Amino acid sequence: MPTPPSEQPTLRRHDTGPQVVELQRRLAQLGLWSLPQRGRYDQHLDDAVRRFQAKCGVRGDSPGVYGPASRRRLESLTS
């Protein structure tokens, strides 16, 4: 059973790892990420998350931070 979004870690600049790759993969499904999925939360990914948040009207997370509100919305739109 997947972990609920509220229990998933918040991701932000300088984070690395498989959860960042998952974020990049999901953003790619929406056409918001076209760079290699290397699992680094850099400025490019920060910008992509900001674009996603603005496009989808995500409120509750700081701009560019992949927190619970952003995760819920992105997971509802992707697989």
- Roughly how many Å is the radius of gyration? 11 Å
Q: What percent of residues are in strands?
A: under 5%
Q: What is the typical, i.e. mean, pLDDT? A: 94
Number of strands: 0
Give the overall form. Answer: globular
The span between the termini is 15 Å
Helix/strand-derived category reads mainly alpha
- Residues in helices, as a percent range: 40-55%
Key structural traits:
mainly alpha, globular, 79 residues, 3 helices
Describe the structure in your own words.
- The chain is an all-alpha fold and 79 residues long.
- The chain is built from 3 helices and no strands.
- It has helices at 18-29, 43-56, 68-77.
- The model has no long low-confidence stretch (mean pLDDT 94).
Brief characterization of the structure:
The protein has 79 residues and is mainly α. The protein is built from 3 helices and no strands.
Helices and strands in order:
Layout: H1 18-29, H2 43-56, H3 68-77
